[in-house]
Specification:
alpha/beta, Substrate Binding Domain Of Dnak, Chain:A, Domain 2, Rossmann fold, 4 domains, six-stranded parallel beta sheet, 28 helices, 16 strands, 49% helix, binds FE(4)-NI(1)-S(5) CLUSTER with Oxygen
Length: 656
């Protein structure tokens, strides 16, 4: 896959918008102008104290170079990436914490616009936490669940609540190597402490602390966020939606919800259907109100309501450049401050809503869960009032793609056998027989330093051609959706023969949209269920499964990479290693971790090598598990997959 320097993004609509609106600066222009600092780019710069910044460069830097304090290059590099993990864990952790506090406020009756929507999921979570739920008031159970999970942020000693959801063997590895996390706050603070000047000077020990911190994200902050969001707003089931910048409507009020936390966005989803607000929009000359999402807030409302997505990270500026967005509402994370500058060229109102995210020039409405619905209505009214200010400026695109999202881990289990017989048996059997070669979690950001979304598109095509089932999250889902890759029809056209057969039998696309970045925790749950089902590995490690974040950008992505590696999944990140200066650090993250956890974290800039490495891991895992050698079109015996008719029959018997 050659890099085309003349193309900014693989999403044609976004490229078209930027061509038409040339002269308005975007992240692509800034990426072109801003060459990365060569020392920082390699992880050879230490600025953890003011004797520096120290630059550990030179021919023999790995062996000889020292900072003023005496820190070696591997120590500097390990500290640097460990602090990225701490940043990512803090971000997902705070997101999870906010969700838990919303659940608590709802259960105590302080946040009247919120409540428990999915009682079954609440009970399932209560059961995992050892909380009695039978015969009790729903809100009492919800209160206990919230309070129990709040412990996961503040606990000083002991173990986090959800670790026991992992296979026993996986947990034993964590114990053996001392990476059992205590709490989000506790283990994040420890990484920051350890990596200050004059603390831990052993790269392996620093990286171990970072693994522990990352596990507090995966099996803590993120998993808590996923579960509480399902409890409050419903566990996703497959839903139709649309993707790309073509989702905006010229004759309707267009509102974007961008960021990560779904609380206010859920209220906006409800508000835009209120007849009074629709009537109000009509008085301003609009035919209706059109809501779209961006980044992971998009994934949250898409998974539960089929709200269309305008794309991932790099689409936020082009979205405003369509000239069709009347209100661009943002909550937390991955919000480019430059959207305010782009909006100045148009009529778009940028509204910040979290007190943690203020952008000069944006209107700020401080989100308060006690009056959430009223604030949602206020935002919708701002957008409606702004509709008449729209001019002909902007580049309107019309191409959009249908897509299917909403594959929660619960639904994936259900779709393999119905309410009575839901399990992971069919998927395990299909892998054992070689119909499905393996599973790849395709995740993470889209990056302006590549033709953005292009590597996602390339890998998605090649992996399914190779009979690899893909589960996607975050901006990878938007990248796949924005080029039409999230429909079952795509399986027929592009998937290998084995995967195609499985997709047709179950009635699923070959790329399953699992949700937002916090929903990578759903992949941990699925992997644990596959291990429990039997026939493959009895732990997460050793499965024919790989994680890939081909265009990663954020600290959150690094934290995710670390928790998958610690859980036993080989992970491949695109681009150069941010710690490429230290061979030792990269050796620990690949060879040493593979030996200890059966997971690893590789950085590989060449997309074709990424693909080859992923397939190699999958094939070696198959070999180690003594599964049938993968040969395209030649399958072993397996149990009969339940087709749609059989599942409908089961649902009929169950009275569903
Ligand atoms: O959390 S994939 S650019 S939006 S960090 Fe951000 Fe990366 Fe997108 Fe969702 Ni995840």
């Amino acid at each position: 896959m050659a890099k085309d320097k003349n193309v900014r993004t693989a999403e044609l609509g976004a490229e078209q918008v930027m061509v038409n609106m040339a002269g308005i600066e975007t992240c692509f222009d800034r990426a072109g102008k801003m060459k990365p600092c060569p020392i920082g780019h390699e992880g050879a710069c230490c600025k953890n104290c003011y004797m520096g910044p120290c630059r550990l460069v030179g021919k023999n830097a790995e062996e000889e170079a020292r900072g003023v304090c005496g820190a070696s290059l591997p120590v500097v590099a390990a500290r640097y990436i460990a602090r990225m993990v701490a940043g990512g864990t803090a971000a997902h952790g705070d997101h999870g914490r906010d969700m838990v506090f919303t659940l608590l406020a709802a259960a105590e009756g302080h946040a009247k616009d919120f409540g428990v929507k999915d009682v079954k999921k609440l009970y399932r979570t209560a059961d995992i936490l050892g909380i009695e739920f039978e015969g009790r008031q729903v809100n009492d159970v919800a209160k206990d669940v919230a309070n129990k999970l709040i412990e996961d942020f503040s606990r000083q000693k002991g173990e986090m609540n959800f670790l026991k959801r992992a296979p026993q063997k996986t947990q034993e590895r964590w114990k053996k190597y001392g990476i059992v996390p205590r709490g989000v706050d506790r283990d994040t603070v420890e990484v920051l402490d350890r990596t200050t000047m004059g603390m831990d000077a052993d790269p392996d020990s620093i990286l171990n602390a970072a693994l522990k911190c990352a596990l507090a994200n995966g099996w803590g902050g993120s998993m808590i966020s996923t579960d509480i969001t399902d409890i409050l707003f419903g566990t996703p089931t497959p839903v139709k939606a649309e993707a790309s910048l073509g989702i905006f409507k010229e004759d309707e009020v267009n509102i974007i919800v961008h960021g990560h936390e779904p609380t206010l966005a859920e209220m906006i989803v409800e508000a835009v259907t209120e007849p009074e607000l629709i009537e109000y929009a009509k008085t301003k000359g609009a035919k209706g109100i059109n809501l779209g999402g961006m980044c992971c807030t998009a994934n949250e409302v898409l998974m539960r309501h089929g709200i269309a997505t305008a794309g991932g990270f790099t689409n936020q500026e082009p979205a405003i450049m369509t000239g069709l967005v009347d209100a661009f509402t943002v909550d937390v994370q991955c919000i480019m401050p430059s959207i305010v500058d782009v909006a100045k060229h148009f009529h778009t109102k940028v509204i910040t809503t979290s007190d943690k995210v203020r952008i000069p020039g944006a209107q700020h409405i401080s989100f308060d869960e006690h009056i959430a619905k009223e604030q949602a209505r206020q935002i919708v009214r701002i957008a409606i009032d702004n509709f008449p200010n729209r001019t002909k400026k902007g580049s309107h695109v019309t191409t959009k793609f249908p897509m299917i999202g909403g594959f929660s881990h619960e639904y994936i289990e259900y779709m393999q056998g119905g309410t009575w017989r839901g399990s992971f048996r069919p998927l395990n059997d299909a892998i054992m027989a070689g119909r499905v070669r393996g599973v790849v979690g395709l995740a993470g950001c889209d990056n302006p330093r590549w033709p953005s979304t292009g590597i996602h598109k390339y890998l998605a095509t090649e992996l399914i051609k190779n009979d690899v089932l893909i589960v996607s999250t975050g901006c990878s889902s938007a990248a796949c959706g924005g080029v039409g890759y999230l429909t079952p029809e795509m399986a027929l056209e592009n998937a290998g023969p084995g995967l195609r057969e499985v997709c047709e039998a179950i009635g699923i696309p070959p790329i399953l949209h699992l949700g937002a970045c916090v929903d990578n925790s759903r992949i941990l749950t699925i992997a644990s269920a596959m291990a429990a089902e039997g026939g493959l590995s009895d732990e997460i490690g050793g499965m024919p499964a790989v994680g890939i974040a081909p265009e990663w950008i954020t600290e959150k992505a690094v934290s995710i990479g670390f928790y998958f590696a610690a859980s036993g999944v080989p992970v491949i990140f695109g681009g150069d290693s941010p710690v490429i200066a230290s061979k030792e650090v990269n050796r620990i993250m690949t060879e040493v971790w593979f030996e200890r956890f059966k997971g690893a974290l590789h950085f590989e800039p060449d997309p074709e090598k990424m693909l080859a490495l992923a397939l190699d891991y999958i094939d070696k895992a198959r070999e180690n598990l003594k599964l049938k050698k993968y040969e395209p079109g030649k399958f072993g015996t397996e149990k009969v997959l339940m087709d749609m008719a059989a599942r409908r029959e089961i649902r009929g018997h169950a009275g569903l």
